[in-house]
Amino acid sequence: MLEEKAPSDKSQDEASNPLISGLDLEKQVKPLAFTIFGAHGDLNKRKLLPAIYALYLQGLLPRGFVLLGTSRTVMDDEGFRKLMCESLQKFAPDLPFEQDAWDRFATCLFYQPADSGSHEGFASIKTRLEELGQKYNTGGRNVFYLSTPPSLYWPIIEGLSKVGLVEKRKVNEEAWPRVVIEKPFGHDLSSSLELDDHIHDVMREHQVYRIDHYLGKETVQNVMVFRFANSIFEPIWNRNYIEQIQITNAETIGVEGRGAYYEEAGALRDMVQNHLMQLLALVLMEPPIAMDAETTRDEKIKVLRALKPIDLNRIDSVAVRGQYDQGFVAGVEVPAYRAEKSVKPDSNTITFAALKLEVDNWRWAGVPIYLRSGKRMAKSITEVSIHFKPTPNNLFGDIPGLSQAPSNPEGNVLVMQIQPEEGISLKFATKEPGPTTSVRWLNMDFRYGTAFGTRTPTAYERLILDCLQGDPSLYARSDFVEASWRYLQPVIEHWEKNNPTKFPNYKAGSWGPKESDDMLAQRGHYWRKL
Ligand code: BG6
């Protein structure tokens, strides 16, 4: 078990383990049991287990830590340990694997097969947690991680509540147990409200951790630091200086064997309602008065509340959908969405969504915010670009982006790249060497990798640690999720009522349907060339 290792003995491990210098624990993690529903699934194998193991290597797990995996698959503790060990080596090759360290870690892994549709299943989990809790002194503290299809969120929480593993705490009581819920939270506004209502019957909001892995990304957290730890950007971060903002999530991958899930979700629910709306809030929010969970989340929700409601008569000019056809990505031929596994041959599920939003407040009035997310695009890039207004007069001739059309693709642009090359760059005009005054656009670049030269913790590492510490700052609060669905609901309904007539409407390996370019062209804007 974990007490045999002294993971917090940094002096001994520091030299051999570069991860240790990365994070410092601000709050203590108390002994606890971490139960993963869907432990046999992909998310656990690829993300959760590697993140927990990385926390262990950094000495960030408490002594008295129990990880209980559960799912319907029948397996014993040893089988689970073996499976997790194989998954770790397969999916987390960047983590140093040493048999000794793994063997020590593996002593805290346990498995309980259970059918989450039956009372007996929950009763068996309870019995197991009680036994393990006594043995490892977890003090009855539980975290339940729902790494399952969304349709099981409420049945699992209800099942846990019926056997007394989930109880509603008072506002001033410590938040145990905690339940971590994956996205999508609900399928639309009414189903998310219904789910929330159910959950709040048996738990208080401070026990609910709605995970959005984008918030755990270093570069996403850096948006706040960049904006509020530097005094030079904030004065120009408004409608007086900014012409437009673009948030792009482009992926070259398709649905990667997740056809069944994606058929239900589609791009709007899968990426926009959660990840991109969170990014948008971070970029547009007012400075919070403190860095605590509620204060920052209060500022984020104000942004969503200030979004100008979508004009029902103009939906098609502010919301574009797409689905990919077969094509070539990085020189390799890939099938159309409709030919993917578990996808209906006449599916109308969207794999691309682009929106134009406006924020009705003093800071942002009149500044268009463009969001787009697509699968099977030409490149994999997630970034936020802030496009500044041009100079007011034309000293240097007819130079694109300088004083020409305000929206020329050239011009001062600040790019916060979330992935793959995490960093920040600022495009500015400079004089080309030579006898004439000719101006060129260049980039001033900052890259995380080269600047810090350390391994970046994964989003799940950060978020799981926060949950263990009881800090929900980087988790989505109930009102945010609701406001996001509320804003998008007219688009969801409009698209559901009106079947697309031209699907598939973009080639795999392209930048999406032409209508998405047309949407920006209405204001003389262009998507940034990536
Ligand atoms: C997930 C979506 O939430 O985020 C996936 O379900 C998507 O469809 C993924 O591919 C993108 O995450 P990342 O971290 O690779 O940008």
Question: Could you explain how this protein is built, in words?
Answer:
The protein is an alpha/beta fold. The protein has 2 domains: 10-210, NAD(P)-binding Rossmann-like Domain (Rossmann fold, 3-Layer(aba) Sandwich); 217-521, Dihydrodipicolinate Reductase, domain 2, CATH 3.30.360. 35% of the residues lie in helices and 18% in strands. It contains 15 helices and 18 strands. The strands form 4 sheets. The protein has an 8-stranded mixed β-sheet, sandwiched between helices. A 6-stranded parallel β-sheet has the order 3-2-1-4-5-6. It has a two-stranded parallel ribbon with strand order 9-18. Helix 7 (189-202) packs antiparallel against helix 14 (478-497), helix 9 (259-284) packs across helix 14 and helix 10 packs parallel to helix 14. The radius of gyration is 24 Å and the shape is globular. The two termini are 49 Å apart. The model is unreliable at 3-25 (pLDDT under 50). The site of 6-O-phosphono-beta-D-glucopyranose has 4 residues, from loops.
**How many domains would you count in the coordinates?**
2
Shape: globular
Global structural class = alpha/beta
Poorly predicted sequence stretches spanning 5 or more consecutive residues: 3-25
Q: How many angstroms does the end-to-end distance come to?
A: 49 Å
Helix content: 25-40%
* Strand residue content: 15-25%
- In CATH, what is the homologous superfamily of the largest domain? Dihydrodipicolinate Reductase, domain 2
List cofactors, ions and other ligands: 6-O-phosphono-beta-D-glucopyranose
As for the CATH topology of the largest domain, it is: Dihydrodipicolinate Reductase, domain 2
Look at the structure and give the CATH class of the largest domain. Alpha Beta
The overall strand count is 18
